[in-house]
Amino acid sequence: MDFAKVQVEVRAGSGKGPSRRVRAAGKLPAVLYGHKAEALPLAVDSAKLLKALDKERKRNTVFALEMTRDGKVEDVTAMIRDVQIDPISRRPVHVDFIRVSMDEMVRVTIPVVLQGTPVGVTNGGNLHQSHRNLPIAAKPADMPAKIEMDVTALNIGDVLHAGDLKLPAGVKVLLDPKEAIASVVAPHAEKAEEAAAVVPTEGAAAPAEGAPAAGAPAAGAPAAGASAATGAKAAAPAAKKEPEKKGK
């Protein structure tokens, strides 16, 4: 497997001051961590780093860093651990690399892509995808860009579990085998209609604080089961007294 080659150089000092000087020189400040080695402050060409990123793997790209230190060149296999992005320009302002070994499993997150139209969807069901990204462990050379799964055979009520995924050799999904990845569920039209009937229409006044909840009788109102006529008679005297108050 060919890794993306990027030239980096060890820079002097760390912190905000040295990082600003690196940016002023047109480069991106970076730090290399991992394998219990000292953290090394680096400088890398931002444009070349972005160009070296694999279009599918993106941040899961494995780099072959050509690191220059004291006039000597050292090859380091690394991946991106974190990137700081400027909130306005949306450009990277700092990157952290992590050393990786060809013989060690690396934990990353990759997308899972569902292919095909489930038969259950054709029969009126809905496809529900529980996980769009999967945590996996693999050696750098075995790391896939994505996991693709054919869901054509899924009918209403069927579930695709993590244990059902067809993985490349050397790749392990870090989920319980019974964890649902995707499923085809029956439409809930009736339940949606019932829920819509309960939800108040837009613009309707909300009950005042301390007011009885919807469906609960107000204080002094007839209990459930009392006739509407009884309630009307009870309310009638109050309606007649109102004009007398105004006349006074």
Descriptive notes:
- It is a single chain.
- By secondary structure, this protein is of the alpha+beta class.
- The protein has 2 domains: 96 residues, Ribosomal Protein L25, Chain P (Beta Barrel); 84 residues, RNA Polymerase Alpha Subunit, Chain A, domain 2 (Beta Complex), CATH 2.170.120.20.
- The chain is 20% helix and 33% strand.
- The strands form 3 sheets. It has a 6-stranded mixed β-barrel with strand order 1-3-2-6-5-4.
- Strand 5 and strand 6 form a beta hairpin.
- It is elongated.
Number of strands: 13
CATH superfamily of the largest domain: Ribosomal Protein L25, Chain P
Oligomer: single chain
Find the structural class using helix and strand composition. alpha+beta
Low-confidence segments: 206-242
Please give the count of helices: 5
* Domain tally: 2
The first-to-last residue Cα distance is: 97 Å
Q: What's the rounded overall pLDDT mean?
A: 81
CATH class of the largest domain reads Mainly Beta
Rg from Cα? 32 Å
**Main β-sheet, in a few words?**
6 strands, mixed, barrel
Any guess at the CATH architecture of the largest domain?
A: Beta Barrel
What is the third-level CATH name, the topology of the largest domain? Ribosomal Protein L25, Chain P
